[in-house]
Amino acid sequence: MADIKNILLVGVGGQGIILASKILAKGLMSVGFDVKMSEVHGMAQRGGSVTTQVRFGEKIYSPIIGKGQADILVSFEKMEAVRWIDHLKKDGKVVVNDYEIPSAPILIGSAEYPKGIVEELQSKTNVTIFKAADIAKGLGNIKTMNIVMVGALVKAMGIDNIDWEEVIKNTVKEKFVDINIKALRKGMEQI
């Protein structure tokens, strides 16, 4: 694959987006791609917006994805998908975790969580929406939600031929390897 692929992962602080990006970057590098990654996590510890941009191909010069350039947008929280949709290519794909994390204005009652997000996304783009949090809870650990999303991403991008299980073994703590491999497999089943 000589062309460049752009992946934008978005969500809220504490959802494991940066770990997901690191797993993704390691896997892509393991098969010889040049990979550049950028992350923004300003108020991440307080539930703020978190984004990571992963670009891969034969040779990558910049980690930044501009508006209209993402091949795939992976949203760990559904309101974030709407916030970042303008970065998606016209023929791009969107993978969304049907999960809500209320922002500070919503929590204090000065705003309401927007309704109709799923329907709006479905009317505008090629989108797969599923409940990664429910899948992770079913596995026994909600914190594996990020790896469920990684599984869906690699399947949606057609990069599931990489040994992602080995990447997980080499990235997460040993006591969490088995549950994260199960989460990866469950995520792949969603696409």
TrEMBL record:
Keyword annotations of the record: Oxidoreductase, Pyruvate
Coiled coil stretches, renumbered: none
Protein name stated in the entry: Indolepyruvate ferredoxin oxidoreductase beta subunit
Domain Pyruvate/ketoisovalerate oxidoreductase catalytic: 13-189
Molecular functions per Gene Ontology: oxidoreductase activity, acting on the aldehyde or oxo group of donors
One Pfam family this sequence matches: POR
TM region positions: none
Organism this protein belongs to: Maledivibacter halophilus
